[in-house]
Amino acid sequence: MLFLKLARKKLPEVLKEFPEYSFYTPKKEGVRVLLKETSPDGLPEDLRFERSTASAKELLFPQAETMFYFLRYKPSQKPVLDEGKRLILGLRPCDAHGIQVLEANFLKVEPVDPYFKKRRENTLLVTVACSEFEDNCFCDSLGSGPDRLNGADAIIYDLSNAVGVLSNNEIISQRLKDYAFQIQEVRGEDEAEKGSLPQRTVEPLPILSPEEYLSLILEEKLWDKISSTCLACASCTYLCPTCYCFDIQDINYGPAGKRIRTYDSCMFNLYTLEASGHNPRPTLKERWRQRFLHKFSYIPYLHGILGCTGCGRCIEVCPAGIDMREVIKDVAKFPR
Amino acid sequence: MENFEPKIIAFLCNWCSYAGADLAGVSRFQYPPHVRVIRVPCSGRVNPLFVLKTLYEGADGVLVSGCHPGDCHYQSGNYYARRRLEVFKKLLDFVGLNPARFKMAWISASEGAQFAQLIREFTAEVKETGPNQEFVREKADLVRFLNENR
Amino acid sequence: MRTDDLILKCQEAFREKELDLFLGFERSSSGFLKPAVFTSLESLEKISWDPSASLNLATFIPRFKGKKVGIIAPGCVSRSLVILINEGQVSRDRLTVVGVPCQGLIERKKLGDLKGVRFLDSQNGKFTLQRGGQIVELPLENYLSESCLDCDHSGPVLYDYLIEGSSRKNPSGNLEKRVKALVELSPGERLLYFKKEAEKCIRCYACRQACPMCYCESCFVESSEPRWLQAAPEVADNLIWLLTRVYHLAGRCVQCGSCARACPEGVDLMSLLAWANQSVSELFQYQPGLEIGEKPALGEYRLEDPDFFWGGGLTEGKKCCS
After folding, report:
1. What pLDDT score does B1 carry?
2. Which of C139, C179, C171 has its CA nearest to residue C75?
3. Residues of chain C positioned with their CB less than 8 A from the CB of B97
4. Is B145's CB within 8 Å of A256's CB?
5. pLDDT for A44 beyond 60
6. For range A200-204, the mean pLDDT
7. Which residue of C has its CA nearest to B84?
8. Which residue of chain A has the CA closest to C118?
9. How far does the CA of residue B147 sit from the closest CA of chain C (Å)?
């Protein structure tokens, strides 16, 4: 991968090297921070962006998308793919980690999801290393950090009088080359100059191995206690960068129709309700257990990366004040 | 609005209003053909979600009609309907649905002429209001797909 | 109200009534109170109550069927309990209510950017926050939830034990004024307003889950035959969701504001709910949650109910709405 250093004021010019890409940055809108199309000239000088409400999921795996249209008696359906090219600038390393988990699910397992694949292929994800921690984020406790590349196409480090761009994406490296005053070939991201990073003095959270977490699956009391004040709304799952469960519905209009895909949530009591009426996860306790183990046991076991990015959105939005950090501690404390 | 022919859905209770509508037909009372009737056992059967779903699917006007209070075949169904639908109509009006689009009526089995009169009035009111663009679902893409692939 | 008194009273209730569990609030890491289920006398040392709480605790009652449950209740929670009792969702003898005074609950969305904010304390109509290293004291009145500003039954109407203290009086009438202002708009303007609100909705159903009165085991949105609305959060579908939920609460909503506080997007639910309740109150002279033994308004009828139907003789010519 390449590490390029550029003068700060070159950035808006550099961004104009990507004319075929629509340019998106996080922008505050009411109570939300959404990814909005902007012009490269509107970049904040300090490269500090608000943390987006819905992470990169907003553009790569939106809440509702049309899969295909169909006509009665005509069996062929062409998938409706999003051909738009996008350059998303200003997300954070935790958002990139979230996309890694989505990639693991949608791209690394057969069948490959054509919708996510097309969007991901057409997207350049450029994150910015964090200059400070949010109230509720804890990526550093998960062995990740506010400076990691995490599979993004490039990450920008603030080097006060310059910016450093770390990238192993051909397109980005090529187009930036002419603007950089220093280019370095690096083998690992730790060889790059990262500038000053936020330091934290809190204890890291106790993270167990996937097998250790799985051994707690039958501990009723633990999951009872954790889910006792959960409202079972879907706020946390909708905003979580790594949640990818979806539901499929057909919307009809006479002899025509379309199949759409929308977010599902393990918090809904329809989750895993089978046509027979049987539900292997009949109450909130089982569903909460599934949410936790999915993030901390199943995803790491299957894909080798943690299913939680430590972004803290769930903590911020939960109307019942459930704190994932407390849950992690409670689970680790439970006698095994 | 010229050339606008409204689609009106009427939920008529089986024992009174539906019979009244039938009487209007048999007696050859003239009324506009825009109304499509759905027979329900009682006006109390009408879930306000019926009204919402009907508007959502593109109807321009919705009518609910039952037996006069005191004459319900099931004794009290229309009393419940009266309470529920009045509260519901107030809610729909508050949200901004044009009040002309939702009407509630009592038509007895012998009131064929009144049924025809009701439909004439309601159709004129809805026609004047114009097509339902407020509560109808988004289907532009489906319409386009259907037209391209007929 | 002193927290020590609250702890002692709740422990007394837990002991005397041999409760299985106690519903209350405890301090979260941000200093705001979060709901908690206390299952022992010792754990009740952590129970607390102040304006930083947010949820209506009665929403947890239906999940503890068959258990003997204690609960702390200000006015709105106690009224919710009355309705749950009237609708047969909980029996009075299984409930032990510790009535608490209430000065209103803070609407966190009014605090603006919550970065670096910790709730510290509340006293005498003011509350203190730690904000980015500084201690800030703010007047409660400016940050209360809209429902609390208008509350006219802030003291508990139902209780087995009572914690003495003054509850908020002088409802501001704000919500009523806002509803009136909306009524004065033209239908087209109102529709535009509510469509904008419906656009914000992400269908997380936090409002439904935070509401004690939404206890249906199968909500109408989960129905697939018939399917009333699609899962995608489009405006028309969101409107069906919002209107139907509000309609299902007409005459049952105690205007506690738990839904509005739980909504992550700040959708204006209160004006719809206030209007629905107002309609029921005007048409049928019914106020929800004040008397045990009352039947829900839309579950009964009177022969002399106002009649605005076409062809009805009683109130011919009168219009039901403006």
Report:
1. 53
2. C171
3. 187, 191
4. yes
5. yes
6. 78
7. C298
8. A135
9. 23
Q: How many CB atoms lie within 10 A of CB B59?
A: 22
Specify if A79 maps to a domain: yes
Same domain, A74 and A175: yes
| φ, ψ dihedrals at B98, nearest 5° | -60, 125
What is the residue whose two structure tokens read 């089978």?
A: A274
How is residue C242 written in tokens? 């919002």
Do residues C246 and C92 touch, judged by C-beta distance below 8 A?
Answer: no
Q: Is C318 near chain B, with CB under 8 Å?
A: no
H helices of chain A, in order, are: 11-15, 57-60, 93-106, 114-121, 170-176, 210-214, 220-227, 235-239, 284-293, 299-303, 313-317, 324-333
- C208 and chain A: CB distance < 8 Å anywhere? yes
In a mutagenesis test of the C interface, which of A29, A233, A279 is the best target, namely the one with the most C β-carbons within 10 Å?
A: A233
- Is residue C166 a contact partner of residue C177, using CB atoms and an 8 Å limit? no
Do the domain assignments include residue A120? yes
C-chain CB neighbours of A284 within 8 Å are 63
Domain spans of chain B, in order of start: 8-148
In sequence order, which ranges of B5-150 are alpha helices (DSSP H)?
17-26, 48-56, 77-95, 112-129, 140-148
Q: 3-state DSSP call for residue C86?
A: helix
Question: How many structural domains compose chain A?
Answer: 2
By C-alpha distance, the chain B residue nearest A252 is B142
Quick one: pLDDT band at residue C313, thresholds 50, 70, 90? low
User: What is the pTM for the complete model shown?
Assistant: 0.93
Dig out the tokens for A93 from the structure.
């390393």
Contact B26, B112 (CB under 8 A): yes
Å between A198 CA and nearest CA of chain B = 47
Distances (CA, A) of A204 to A144, A306, A332: 11, 15, 12
Q: Tokens 């959060």: give the residue.
A: C233
- A201: in domain: no
* Residue in the block written with tokens 């609030």: C25
* Residue A58 lies in domain: 2-191
**What ipTM goes with this model?**
0.93
CATH classification code of B8-148: 3.40.50
d(CA A66, CA A80): 7
Q: Which of B49, B80, B86 sits opposite C244 (nearest CB)?
A: B49
Residue A25 lies in a domain: yes
d(CA A167, CA A87): 14
Q: What is the mean pLDDT of chain A?
A: 90
Instruction: Find where tokens 């203190």 sit.
Output: C128
Question: How many Cβ pairs closer than 8 A exist between chain B and C?
Answer: 130
Mutation site, A71, A250, A253, interface B, largest B CB count within 10 A = A253
